[in-house]
Structures are given as C-alpha cells and as structure tokens.
Amino acid sequence: MCVVTAVAGGDRSGCLVGFASQCSIRPPRFAVWLSKANHTYRVARAAQCLAVHLITRDQRGLAERFGGETGDEVDKFAGLAWREGHGGAAVLEDAAAWFVGTILHRTDGGDHVGFVLDPVQWGEGHDGPLLRLSDAVTIDAGHPVD
User: Fold this and answer.
1) The Flavin reductase like domain covers which part of the protein (predicted)?
2) Could you tell me the pTM of the whole model?
C-alpha cells in the first residue's frame, strides 16, 4: 500500500493506493492506478508529477486519513508534516520512503486510470515494517467503489 499525492491548479490531494508497481527497469518506470471516483484523480489529471509514499504499519492513522477520508470534504494535509518536492509535488515527511515521478502517460483501465511515472526525486525516513493490503482491508474508503 502507498499514499499518492497530487498538486495542480492550487489544489492538493492524496489517497491510499493498492494498485501500484514498478513497470520498467530500463528506463526506470513506476505505475500507480487512481480511482476515477477520488478527488486525487481529479487533481492528478492536471498534475505534472505525483509523489508516491510507502508508509509503515504503525502509521495506520495516516493510511486511514488518506484512505478513509475524501478530499472533497476535508484537507488531508492539515496538521501533517509535508514539503514541496520536484515540480511542486507534496512530499509527506514521515513516509518510510518516497519518490516524485514525472507523469509520462495516463492509461484508462476502467474505473481506475494508470499513471506511468518517471522517478526524478526520492528519499527515505521512517523505519519499520511496511503497510500491506492485509493491514488496510478494514479501512472504509472515503469514496467507495460501487
């Protein structure tokens, strides 16, 4: 599981993502899939970059914030330590690891859109075992899929 953040047009958003993977070794590429129902997807459509964050199991509160709330109703960044990264991306400072990727392609996959990213900036911070899908299955989605 990871948290993906997007910034565009003065708007900032983020969501918990379960569909993400490295998709090329040379050149290095990574793909994240955002639900069309999410506020983050609407911001990402106009973004140049996305930030992808790995979080640890002890950061479940962060997973609940980004997975169980909707940016249509709350500012998920309120009270969080974050900074501006490459291309204006919102980087969560407490993530276990993160990267900012320039968006190369957007691919419609049905109810999700895949964003193929070229990693251009990265870092690490918080230690601990990473949050997995099995750790997050009880989080009720802020924008449930029908």
Assistant:
1) 1-139
2) 0.89
